[in-house]
């Protein structure tokens, strides 16, 4: 048989490959062993070393953990039976097995969230019903619709996974908070509008009362006695005329109109002073046809400008039958 020589480097290479294959088999076996440990430690919430099998991290809220052995480049694998293995780094992996929240806890929290959410919804609906149409309830309506949807999803909490239930509880609480905020804003807007309406009503009432008082005063001033009292006061304050001039004025306008602010002559002479035409008195105020005071003011001015005093005007009237 021919002699075949093998170089030292070739033998070394073959030996290295053999060792690598053996090491790979050991790692795969370690991975299977680690999975077995994971199945046994499900729901214990610890991270253990794949090499030693001893705990290396404290309890975890959402996952149980065991050692390495997962294939390189595969950070997470589904191990079946509700168990998920996630590589943490070095020689550690995390195994998620079951819910992090006890069923009883999830059910209790969900029941409380449902009751509270329905209370918030009921109040919102009550406020929306009582809110006047002039106040916008768009935001309140939209947020209430969202809350209704969240409550409907949470209502089957007894059959849902506890982790899912807790997520729905949080979503429901967020929606309820939004509804509460919208309800408060709507109530505030309605109260502000009610206050504005009450203020406007009070102002209108005061204005009406003032107008009524003015009407009463005007009615009194439009009577012959009221017109005479106005004339006497203005004669003294504006012209310095005394009782003698007042006596002449009373005689003059008694003859002309009987101190009737509605007096009208076929010639067109109008009112207490018998202005011709009556529209002349608009130089004092536009209410000349209905206000005796306006007529008195215009008549005194006319007498002062045309005759100087009421007695001079009265003398002219006696002599000529007009003034």
Q: What layout of secondary structure does this protein have?
A:
Blueprint: H1 8-41, E1 47-48, E2 55-57, E3 64-67, E4 76-80, E5 83-89, E6 92-97, H2 103-130, H3 138-154, H4 162-222, H5 224-239, H6 243-256, H7 292-306, H8 310-320
Antiparallel strand pairs: 1-2, 3-6, 4-5, 5-6
User: Which value, in Å, is the CA radius of gyration?
Assistant: 52 Å
**Classification by helices and strands:** alpha+beta
Shape: rod-shaped
The ordered string of helix (H) and strand (E) elements is HEEEEEEHHHHHHH
Instruction: Report the sheet with the most strands, covering strand number, pairing sense and barrel closure.
Output: 4 strands, antiparallel
Structurally, how many domains make up the residues?
3
Strand order in the largest sheet: 3-6-5-4
Q: What's the total helix number?
A: 8
Helix content: 55-70%
The overall strand count is 6
User: What percentage of amino acids are in beta strands?
Assistant: 5-15%
Q: Any low-confidence stretches, pLDDT <50, length ≥5?
A: 1-12, 21-74, 76-84
- How confident overall, as mean pLDDT? 80
N/C terminus separation: 170 Å
């Amino acid at each position: 048989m021919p002699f075949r020589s093998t170089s030292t480097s070739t033998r070394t290479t073959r030996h290295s490959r053999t060792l690598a294959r053996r090491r790979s088999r050991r790692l795969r076996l370690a991975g299977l062993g680690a999975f077995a440990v994971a199945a046994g430690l499900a729901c214990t919430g610890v991270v253990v070393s794949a090499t030693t099998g001893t705990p290396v991290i404290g309890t975890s809220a959402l996952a149980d953990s065991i050692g390495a052995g997962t294939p390189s480049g595969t950070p997470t694998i589904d191990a079946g039976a509700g168990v998920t293995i996630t590589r943490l780094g070095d020689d550690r992996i995390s195994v998620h097995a079951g819910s992090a929240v006890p069923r009883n806890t999830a059910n209790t929290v969900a029941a409380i969230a449902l009751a509270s959410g329905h209370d918030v919804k009921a109040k919102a609906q009550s406020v929306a019903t009582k809110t006047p149409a002039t106040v916008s309830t768009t935001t309140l309506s939209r947020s209430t619709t969202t809350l209704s949807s969240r409550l409907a999803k949470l209502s089957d909490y007894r059959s849902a996974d506890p982790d899912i239930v807790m997520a729905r509880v949080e979503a429901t609480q967020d929606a309820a908070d939004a509804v509460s905020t919208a309800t408060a804003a709507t109530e505030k807007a309605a109260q502000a509008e009610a206050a504005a309406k009450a203020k406007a009503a009070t102002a209108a009432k005061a204005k009406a009362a003032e107008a009524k008082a003015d009407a009463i005063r005007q009615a009194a001033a439009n009577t012959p006695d009221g017109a005479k009292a106005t004339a006497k006061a203005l004669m003294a304050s504006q012209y310095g005329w005394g009782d003698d001039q007042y006596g002449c004025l009373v005689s003059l306008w008694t003859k002309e109109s009987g101190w009737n602010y509605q007096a009208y002559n076929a010639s067109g002479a109008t009112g207490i002073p018998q202005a011709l035409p009556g529209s002349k008195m608009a130089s004092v105020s536009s209410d000349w046809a209905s206000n005796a005071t306006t007529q008195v003011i215009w008549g005194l001015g006319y007498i002062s400008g045309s005759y100087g005093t009421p007695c001079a005007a009265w003398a002219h009237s006696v002599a000529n039958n007009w003034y």
